[in-house]
Each structure stands twice: as structure tokens, then as C-alpha cells.
């Protein structure tokens, strides 16, 4: 792991290190203050937050009760702690910009649906210690005022900077979620309209019939009060029908309308589906354009009350459900606003869409776990890893290959899971974690100088807070800095509902530029309308955040906006001239890294849980002993369980004593490095199996294994020899009677297996049959059951027979039989007097050492003259001696250490020659003939 | 921390009892894991067979074919370990396989002839995997094949001796009187053929008349062997040799067909040893059966029971021997040079030996000896076991230089591709390709830099 904290901490420039301008300067987040002030607690800023970790809050502005929280993700009351969700909902809903006009605009006969784009705001409450990215959206509800229901989704964190710097990513993910919700909502809304129309038409027909009866009754009653009332009612219903039909038309034209929101994410398939559905509806109701025409029809179909609806229903897919619906008479007067029950969010959206959204948000929450430094490191790490494919397979966890084929292309998204080819690929926003002064200067200055470029100003005064506004760019993204005597709020709004011609054009342009262009370098070659804005807005966020810090809490000093601006500019100039490097982030393609973080956390863990329970019921009846774990056969991975409380009989091949799992789990929360500052408990995802090889090996599992590895190193004085065996490619057999112990050891030692494979294919955690040469070739680390039976003796026979190829770690007698190792290379990862106490720390330490090794192996592998003669006259001995010289003198490796490098080099070579490993030839297995010695504690 | 040096694994009470009795009864021949002279430091396991793999033939300098009881013939690329062809057609086990080379045009074209228990013979093209010719419904299954390139014919031996031309047309046929049929065929000078059947060696003459019809005539019957003949080989132009089940090794004149030397290899059995032995007291015939003979023209290497026996043709005497070279019967041997040899055995290992001069003080002759002249049971090993030993002052030692362990069943056969490696086949259905790790690593590096160049960078 390239960016492990070990490296970071020591790489910080000290006072002597000024001389060399670093090409890869350390971002500010990583810097360790040289002389920390005695009273300054680096976590002070977040320490008074009333919640323990970040969460996502969905709130709505209910027309009946005002702002109210709906749900949180994760849906765990512990997450929010004492944090007042109601109050916070009030806060976040109050900054809604949506001053859009609803109802009858002048000059039109029918109510208009307002097509409002989402808006994105960052706001903070320093008193509460909460900062939030707030994503406002509106959903349609026929019964709501103006047909709209305002909602918002907020990512709430204690660290303002985290939100600021992750704005683009947050915005992207929430846009996805929002689009998903809205798509579902449109569908539901159309259905509701349809139902309403049917009701209205039914009512209409009834009224018409009544009127007809009256007309027949005679002219005298034509003008009676009753008749007039009926006529009015009829007219009202007719009007209502027209209105609703128009609404239906409007909602179906939703997709034809240009999107102004540059961040809008759409799935083409969903759009098409929606469109066709709406078309269908439209066609259907266009038929009954004239009430009299309908009347005829209704007259015909008098016998059955559903009338017209039925014929059409049969054409629809959801026939069954709709058939059961009986049109109802619509009362002339609608119910009072406060009498009716408002639809819930689930009702407002189609069920599938709602669930997909929640899933998406959950994933978002997962991927943003941990503090900024951690996220940033991960991202850097991955970006670098991607460039190091030649060696990353050795020790790094697997990056999901499927998702990164096209660099810079966002993982095609549709929450409802449509086929991949339907997606509009979009260009992910560049993640700018630190300002880029040069570009910004060019961008920002003219805007500030030229007030004419400001197109509109949004005012926010709902709560009467002091406010001031800055239109930072001609874009639709606005930086708003609100100051009050007590709070500082950085508020960042990205959209407005105000419709200006210029803006529409602009958004059209940005749509064009956005949709089909998966160019990963777009942040380097900015699109004039689009990307620049993004960068500039990111910049704004960054500086705002910086500002707050600079003010030492920042909440006491009210500062006028102009001051802020001028200060920002001054800062920038300063940066340009002087500290050219230190604040700069080298533009790397980190954007693409962000997508898959969710996977890395819990690739398959949640699925494993129910299966575990299920299996535990089955197992007592199953007496068969599975001898080998179904390695690499992913569909089969559920066939074994890791510890179930039900059956503890040791004979049942693959079980782990239940205590073990619990043990491991309880340890994890303390060890888990991913949530360094914020997490005390990580909730339900703890169920991830500690030894889940056979499935994708996740980082989390590897970190857990780090603890085991650390324990191994501290416990066994011959750990260094064992590690050397693994690293030099000699198969290590862990022999033991107790499955749990063996599995734990194997899981810990698996960290040291070079190129373990995506699913740990080269590790066999538990084997209870004699192994063959092929097994040795396939597995580099084997957990072997020691049994006292004929089978056991044949196993021991195979052990002794193949003893030249293997090292044997006897977990019961605590012995290790392997060739002697006298090198120094591994001393720092196998020091049993190490001061490292935490597994995750050890894991990172280990990763940095292994990374170092991999780098050396890379160098060795690709240095031509170390392997091949330079000239034709040169003999093999010359090359050989040159190689030895390189290894021993230049790399300073002893004989045994060289073997590690040779083995790694061999792996790299093989990987390079056959990246897929799908060669027709059998894999080769290298070894050497050396005497083993037996180590005892 | 305490390091204990030990060559064998100590598992407390769990000794490896499974190790065959042979190991326990005889002084364990253990070279240990330090084998500096063993250059085979890389292996590839070749899978594909479903039953015992019994035969390996070299097709050219990079291909070999394997055949076994599953009736399959597989063609392998020895350099890469790839399976090139799968020759399917025989329904029963393969009993004999040989290559036949046609130089019709400019190119040398090597084909494979296989014989199977399903009483058929097939000709295969190893390049395409096609069965070019096939003959089925033979009267009996063929046990051995002999190709006479010079005469453009080939012979099959079984219960009858048949001569075929290249187009698989039967040229002539000669029924056999013995029950066991012909088990081995060799070519002798002047168009003569020697065929081993049971205890006799028949000499046939092959005459090709003007109309290119071939006839076979029985010339002589050599019946000096007391037991069934197990091995029959050509030594050089002047000699051929045969070995029998009871350990008789006879060197024959190839032109006169007379007996030149008779050696009865009978491992000396110490009585005391026999008594402790759980098995029967008398040496089992299989312990002195000559399983395999091989020669390089100067030396004859005989696999006798689980031992090895090197016989010099010039001195007509034993050069070196090892009574217990393997834990079980030796199945195949090879002389790599005048001093290096290799053997494989039912115990699943391949061993490499070096013929070394004895250290000057006369080595106390080891427990084994050959008993033609000395049936004396001499427990006293340093004593004068026989005059023969004294007669042969230049007896040397067979020193184990390395072993290859990988197969879990009897190693049936091996073929050496010189520096490209060694292919072994075994009863565990596997073939193993043993290679020199350094050479392979060099080749891989070469390939790496070639690919790097092709790609123009990483």
C-alpha cells in the first residue's frame, strides 16, 4: 500500500528539507504539525459533534407539519446519538432555494407542473458540529400543494472539510439517487393521474347522465338551482379532466425538456421506458377528448361500471391490479389540506425505485466512511495502483477489474439495474482536493472584475439569517457565505430554478459536452462551460473551508463577503507566487477511483450472513466432510460456513468454533483502521467473515488478518523463517488438529503470500486429505488437518514425501521445519519485539514493506542486463555474476533474501507474459534443493 | 530459539508407517534435500490421462507422445508444457507405441504407430491429430513394434509376427508356436531380426524380393535363458543383449548369434537378514528380474529388481552396481553418459546416479552381490565375498546424485530432452516435465524483453 500512514508520517518535510521542490507535495491533510500547540486537539473540531459517524438524512418539507426527518442511513438510532434530527431538518430544508412558482401562471389556463432541477448546497452548523451536503429535490404528488413535495437528502458529517472536498463526488452520487427517486416518482405520478382521470371521467359520465335525466324531465327544471349546480359541477369536472390530461401531457414531456442540471444522471433505458409508458397513457386519454364522445361510450358500457377503462386496461401490463380498481365519484370539493394523509416517500415513488435509491444511498454512506485523510489516501493509493499493474497483483488487494476498464468512465449506473449498454456514460467530475491556483486565477478573476457576467442572484432569507451572496461564476453554482454572530455556514448552491435564456443555452451546451464524452482528461482540458465551473466551484469550497480553519474556529468573526473575496484572491496570488508547490495537488485521475470503494468494503459480506444461519440448520444432518474448500469457484462459495453457533462438533469438516467469530468480530471494531476518528462501532457489517477466502478478499479481511499476523510474529520466534518461506515461494503447510487455530494462522499468513489471486486461490485454509504435487503447485499456503487415523498417516506420508517442496509449521507443537534463513530483509516485519500493537498498523507497515519489495522486484525484473547477455560474446556466467552482484551489492540482499526477489521477479515475469494466466500450458513450479532444519520455540 | 538440524521429519509418534516395507527392510537410501548436482529445479505437471501412463516416445526435439491404459495418446510440447494433440481412437490400453519417419519429400515426417489391446493398429499424424491408417480385427493384440526404416517396412509382434509396409498393407505373416508370443523385437545386421518369446530368442531373416514382396524365415532359436526373457536390446553393431526374469544377462554376438557372456545376477541375501524379514525367506524372483536393459554401446545398464547393475562390454564385467537403488522395482533406466545414469521405479521416484571411483581403501563391499560365482552367504561384508570382486579391481560405485520426487505412483518411463528437460510418466495418470529452473528463468526473461520490445514499453 503506497500511502500507508507510516510512509506519510515520515515523509513530512522538516525544517531542513526546504531545498528540493517536491514534485508530489504532501497535501495539507496529511501534514503532521511539527510543533503542535499544547491545547490544540486535532480532533477538537469534530469532537463536539453529537453523532458518532457520518450519516445520510432524508427529510421533507411537509405542507402539514413543516420540515421533518424521514429516515437516516444507516438506519440506526445510535448513529445520530443525541443529534436533533428535527432541528437539523429544519435547517436543511430552510435553505431550499425553490422559490419556484406553482399553480396557475398568468396567461395559461391550466396548472403547470414545475420542472425543478435539484439543488446542491453545503451548509454547516458549527454549534452542532454538523456539516451537511444537502441535495434538494421535488417530487410530484397530485394531492400536494402545487403538486410538488419538497424533499432533501443530506450527507451529514462532523468534518466540514470532508464535505467540501468531496462535494463533486457527493453531488454525483446524490444526483444518481435523486434521479432514481424522481424516475420512480414520475411513474407513480402518472399512474395516479391515470387513476384520477378515470375517476373524473366516471364522475363526468354520471353527472352527464343525471343532467340528461333532468333535461328530459322538462325545461322547467332546467333552470332550477339544483340543475344549475349540477351544470356547474359538470363544468368543473370537465375542467378538471382537461387539467389532469394536461398534467399527464406535461409529465410525459418531462424527458423532452432540456436538462439544466449538469449533474443529472440518467439511465437511457429508464427514460425510454418512462417515455413509452407516458405515451401510452397519453394516447389513451386523448381518445376521450370530448366529454360527449365519452358519454356515448359510457352509455354503451353502462352495464359494467368500469366502462372505457376496461378495454384499455387489458392492453396494459399490470392488468390484474388495475382491473380491481373501481372508479369513484369525485366530490366537487376537495378535502381540506390538513384532513388528508400525505403520501409517504415510498408511496410517492415506485417501490423498486425507492429500494434502489436506498441501496444507492447505503452504498454512498459506506464509501464515504472514514475521515478525509483516509479517503484521500485510499484514492491516491488506487490511482497509483492502477498505474502499477505490473506489480500490484503481488500484494495489493484486487481492484475490481470490471469497473475500471475504461479509465475515467464512471461505473455505468442505473439503480434499477438495467443492462449496461443502456447507460449514458458520463464524465465524472474531477475530484479536486486542493486548489489549483494557476487555473483558477485565469478563471476567476475576470468574473469578479466583470459584474455583467453575473446573471442572477439568489437570495435566501427564509429564516431571516444574515446573508450575503457571491455569484462566483456565471454558472449556476453559487457560493454563499452566511455569517451570523454564532455560526458560520458555508453554503454552496449549485442550481437555481430561475429560468434564464442564457442558462438554458448554457445547460444545453453542458449537456452536450457531458453526456457522450468519457474523456478522462477533461479536467486537464476543461470544457469552457462546464468543467471550469466545476473546478472553480471546488475551489470555492476549498477556500471556504480553509477560511474557517484559518479563523481558528471561524465562528466568532463576522466577515463581509467582500473581505472574503479579496482574501481569497490574495491567498491565491500568494500561492501562485510563493508556495507554488505545497498546496498543490498534482492532478491525478482520482475521479475514477471513487466509484468502487463500496465494493472494497463489503464485497459479499452481507449475503454471507443469511446463508450462515441457513447452513447452520442444515449441518447437523450433513455428515459428509468437505475436504477441500471450493476455491475459486465463486458460485460455490457459500457451501461452507465459517463458524456457526449451532453445531460445534469438530468432526463437521468446515466449521469454526463459534467463539472465534465473535472474538474476531469484537476485536475488529477496535482495530479497524478505516474509521480512524469517527467510528466506535461500525454496525451490522461486522458479520464479514474473518477468513473469507474463496470469495474476493477484501481490504477489511486483510486488515483483520493483520492482527493475526502481528500475533504470529510476536508469538513465534521463527516467524521470520515462515515469512521468508512464503515470500520466497516455498509452500507453507500449517499442520494442526484444531481447525480454528489452523484457519486463523492461515488467514494471518495469507497476507504474506505473493500473488494470492483475486479470491485467494493460492491459499487453502483447511485441507483434510493428503495432498499431491498438483496441490503444492496450486497452493502456496495450506492448512492441513492433523488426524490420527490411516488417513492421517497417509497425509503424513505425503508430508514427508514432498518435504523438499514445503515448509511445515506445526501449530500444535509449535515447530517449523524449513530451510534456514539468515537474511535481514524481513527483520523489520518479523520482529517479535515490535512496538506495533494494532493489527491494522501492522498491516500497513507490512504493506509498505511489501510494496518496497515489489518495487525492487520490478526493478530487477525489467533490468535487461541482469538476465540476458549484453553482447553475444558474453557468457552466461557473466550474466549470472552480474545478477548476483546486483542483488548482493546494490540491493544489499543476502542469498536467502535474493530468493525472495527472484521469486517475485518470476511472478512478475509470468504475469507480464500471461496477464490472464489462461495459457494452455500447465503452470510451472519452481523449487530448489536445500536442507531444512527444524525450529522450535 | 533452537534450531535442530535433521534430515527426516520427526513427528513424535506419528512415524510414516505408510512408507513401504521396502524402505524399512533395507538401508534407507536417502540423499536428503541438499542436491547441488540436481539441476531439475522446476516442474510442470501435465494432466490429461485418465489411467496409468506407460509409454513415452520422443517425436522430435520438442515433442513427445504419451500413451497409457486409457487408450489415449497425447502429444505434448516439451518446451511449453502444452498439450498439442489428443489422439483418440483406441478403446483399450495401448500396448506398444513407436515413431516412424518418412522422408518422402524434403521434410522429415514423423508419424506414430500405436498398438492396443483392442487388437488394432493405428497410424497417427501428430501434427494434425488425424488417424491416418488403422487396422482392426487382428487375431491377437500386438505387444511390440519394430520399424525398419531401411527396408521401409515395420513389424508387429504378438502371437504372430507380421510385416507391414508404410501403407499398412500386410506383407507377410508368421504364426508363432509359443504361448506367450513375441515380447520384444530388435533389428540385427544384415536384415535379421531377433524376437524374444518366453525363454527363447528367435532369429528371423527378412528377405525382400525383386517385386518388393517381403518374406520372413526362421533361422535359429537361441534357448540359453532359463527363464522368461524380459529385455532384449541392441548394444552395438557387434552385440545384442538379453535379460531374463531370473536375472540372467546374456551378451550375444549380433552376427553369429552365439553367446558371448553369461552373467547371472543374483543379489546375495544374507541369511540373518532373511530371518528378520517378514516376507518369504528366499529371494523372490522379482527381486532379481531384469526389468529393463539399456546401453550406450559401451555399458549395459540393467535394472534388476530394485537395484541397478552396470556391465561393461569391453571388460565383460561388472563396473558398478547398487543392490537397493530404489525402494521398489526399477522400471526404466537410462545412461546419460558413461558416468551418469538415471532410473525410475515403482516407488514413484526418479534417481540420478553417478558412477564414481571408489575411495582408495577398498570399499567394504556392500550387502549385495551377484551370485553366479558366489552363492556364499557372507555376512562379513569386508571379507572376501568372492574371487570375482578381487578379479575386478576397477569396480566403481554408483553414487546417488539426486532424485526427483513428484509422482504419487510408479514412474513407468521417462524420456530425456537433454537440456530442455525430462518427461516422466507414471501410474498416477500424470506426466511431469522436469526442467532446469535457471534455464527456464532465462528463457522467460528473454520472452519478457521481447514482449516489452514489441509493445514498445510497459
Automatic annotation (TrEMBL), chain A:
Would you tell me the Gene Ontology cellular component terms? cytoplasm; guanyl-nucleotide exchange factor complex
Q: Which GO terms describe its biological process?
A: autophagy
List the Gene Ontology MF annotations in alphabetical order: GTPase activator activity; guanyl-nucleotide exchange factor activity
Q: Where is the UDENN FLCN/SMCR8-type domain?
A: 46-909
Alphabetized, the UniProt keywords read: Autophagy, Cytoplasm, Guanine-nucleotide releasing factor
Disordered: annotated segments: 299-320, 467-498, 511-558
Instruction: Indicate where this protein resides in the cell.
Output: Cytoplasm
Q: Where is the composition biased (Acidic residues)?
A: 538-552
Protein name per UniProt: Smith-Magenis syndrome chromosome region, candidate 8a
- Its primary localisation, in coarse terms, equals cytoplasm
Q: Per the record, where are the segments of Low complexity compositional bias?
A: 467-482
Q: Does the keyword Ion transport apply?
A: no
Q: Which family does it belong to?
A: Belongs to the SMCR8 family.
Mark out the compositionally biased spans (Basic and acidic residues). 299-309
